[in-house]
Specification:
The chain is an alpha+beta fold. Helix content is 29%, strand content 25%.
Amino acid sequence: MEMIIDFPGGARVDAHFGPFTVPTDQPSYNGMASAPTPFATFLASIGTCAGIYVLGFCQQRGISAEGVRLVQSLEVNRMTGMVSKVKLDIQLPPTFPEKYKTAVIRAADQCAVKKHFETPPQFEIEATTVPTLASA
């Protein structure tokens, strides 16, 4: 999948792919807080990915997802400022079948974003010069 990243103004940096745009903003770079920061968007991808797996689990078994939610929290290493642990709490309503509690945890554990942490990709960053189009 190719994404085009552009700079629409201020501290906005947006990602475009297919018919979608994911806007980000960075208040610490004089942004207007008009969108989540790139890092917040990254963190949201973890919880929403796990949520997709939980939702799919419920749908496959005909279990209502009403009242089910995930609460994501972080532990941060004070020395490095880096996230050291991501915690996901799948909060289930009293009507959720007890026999599926362990299985729904296993479903969330299949999250593709999480799996990429376990086997992280290599990064390759380069800069190319793109010719400008001549005015007609």
